[in-house]
Task: structure prediction
Amino acid sequence: MKRFTRPRSMTDEMVPYCPGCGHGIAIRLIGEAIDELGIQGETIGIAPVGCAVRSWRLYRIDMMQAPHGRGPAVATGLKRALPEKIIFSYQGDGDSAAIGLAELIHAALRCEKITVFMVNNAIYGATGGQMAPTTLIGQYSTSYPEGRDPGLVGYPVKMAELIANVSRNSYSARVAVNNAKNVLSAKKAIVKAFRTQLNKLGFSFVEILSPCPTGWKMTPVESLNWIEKEMIPEYPLGEYSTPKNL
Amino acid sequence: MKGKPLKAVKVSFDPERCKGCGYCSFVCPKHVIGFSENFNSRGFHYAFLNDPEKCIGCGFCALMCPDIAIRIEVINKD
Amino acid sequence: MREWKEKIVMAGFGGQGIMLMGKLLAYAGMFEGRNVTWLPSYGPEMRGGTANCMVIISTGRIASPYIVEPSSIIVMNQPSLDKFEKAVKSNGLILVNSSMVNRAVERRDLKVFKVAASELAEDLGSVHVANMVALGAYVKVKPIVKIESLEKSLSSVLPVYRRDMLKLNRRALKLGFREALEVEGETS
Amino acid sequence: MGEKLLMTGNEACGEAAIRAGCRFFFAYPITPQNELLEYMARRLPEVNGVFLQSESELAAISMVYGASAAGKRVMTASSACGIALMQEGISYLAASQLPCVIVDVTRAGPGLGRIAPSQSDYRQATRGGGDGDYNVIVLGPASVQEMADLTFLAFDLADKYRNPVMILADGMLGQMMEPVILPDPLNLDKLPMKPWALTGAKNRRRNLILAAPYTDEELIALNEELNRKYRAIKAREQLWENIYMEDAEIVVVAFGTSSRIATEAVENARREGIKVGMIRPVSLWPFPEKAFKGMDTSVKVYLVVEMNNGQMIEDVLLSVPDKSIVYHVGKGGGWRPTPRLIYEEIIKLWRRRLTI
Result:
């Protein structure tokens, strides 16, 4: 019996991210969840702009791209056209919480039966480390090298809480991939998100705290510790809303 | 039970996929993962199991690997 | 058959059913096999203020649906007369809702008719059918479509929620048809 | 052939879309497009279709992107500044080679502008406001009948070339009523097969809809493929109407609403014995260059009439034979020409033609 191998729903491609990037873990967990639920042939994924776009290479499922931030709107179009299929959008924090905030919130408000995964690494990774809406107070970024000053650019956005607040009967959770225990919880949340959609209960959203050693100018191992010490206190893990009957 | 394998498992590392981030060795409760002095073809010092006898097959390394470079197989159940 | 083209502007204030009377005339024209166009004034100016629509009925092809020089105008209130009187082409026609227009037509080169559309409509039971009174009067003095065609077209043009008004609208058309009056030699 | 109905251009466009098999419509309200949106809101549920009012034009075109990727016939509609917001998605649709129909019921710009009918979106439509080397097929109806016919055609062209098609109308065409005979409804089961569509990769290899391939070489290859397609469209899909062109010595060039007004002027001038004709471009991209090629060399004078500051004139200048003289009548901002104004321009040119 195999215990731990590459998910069947994933291709043999190399993971196209920097050393220690959490995207690889998150993408694999989604693949595992697709395998576990047996929905590989029914699932369509959306990979919008940023580091997240590269995820299309990694899944052995139908995939498409989306303009920056429009993942939830593209997912809405797909889902309305194919209500029996499982539609997910895999996005970064700039994509979800800045340029695509309107599309995300409105998909949640409409209770679209889609799933959005948002990787929160508190920085713009693909463009080279500029401030994100999720950047912590005082955190270094190339656009605000002195650290994020809330007097200038406001406070970090709490997406899991926000979605739970606006979306009726949604599943909204925040997880992290900084240690084995959290990775296991993350997987459970991803499965629950898909189940919410499979059972046509409501919108589902999983915010995944994830390391970006390159953007943070840290070693990969330092970045795991930074999530534990700095990010989780600001972004508490847990389920913020769970649909009835899940 | 301490120090004994949970199950008889075979842990294998794919040196070509490894980017040497070190997450596997960081989370390994038995500290049995090391890094090769050699480079793989993309220039990373890849991870390997330097003391297979002490591995308890917990799977933490594979859970944390961002590059899906670690494979764990149960050789015989119980 | 003689070729002809009639360009009609209907104008009044919002709520007088200007768009509807234009649609009805266009529909009746189509019913009789003519080419027709109907063009509303649209947008924010429709709410409150004045409203107008332009209807062309022709035996031949209609090029521009926009009317610069109407051959007829139907004015349901005084601001509409003020606005469109100058535009009417020489020897054209003005039909005035005399209930709502207190001044005489100044142009001397036009045929002028009047009908007390709003008062007649009220007598029938609803001021809302003043538009039909005026339209009935118009086709009496300018028989470009038969009154029967207007009556037949009513059910296609009235919105669903106004279907209960069908009979009243029909009576209003007929009443207007009877009550149209030519204004002779009136001076300003 | 169905019966004659009296409909507005917006309604005729919506009904023709449904008869062409469109079951998905995503849009955001904007005047003067609203009647089309409201028509689809009312009609689509009757045919088990989906109408969804989006949170923005950005979202609307992205929903179109998703439904088109699923292989469905899908439409959106907006006006001027709303279409400007859609340019992002239109560029993605073109890059991903996805079919869809976009209706622009143009209002006058720039910026917010006003709701008067205008042709100031000619350049936005035919040149594309989005990024990259792409083209959108653009059709310019001039009557309510064409609002129906060209919308119907648009869905076929979109599927045939896997490319967005735009209907460039304006407030006048959207709001006016004329008799229309609608095309017969298509059988949904007989619509073109789309093996590339995303439907879940069950029992087949995965399908990918990509706006950005992975390597530089792949993107260059995609651009070459697109360019071949655009050349084929240019060769095959030019549409125009000739009016009084048999012996014309002066040619008016106008599309859409301005062509309706210009036709009246041309007819009036013809009654005076003036040899004036008109070329009415129906496909605006591809521009009907063929209408001008092989033109009798006696035609030297062209009068372009547009409800803008001069946009289509660029295409006319590229299409007319050498030594032609091209004049322009037009203003932006919602200005509307009168038949008399165009007539007077024609008379002026007629009197001067011997000295040209």
Remarks:
- The two ends of chain A are 30 Å apart (CA to CA).
- The CA atoms of residues 197 and 212 of chain A lie 29 Å apart.
- Strands of chain A lie at 2-4, 43-47, 62-65, 86-92, 115-120, 171-176, 204-209, 238-241.
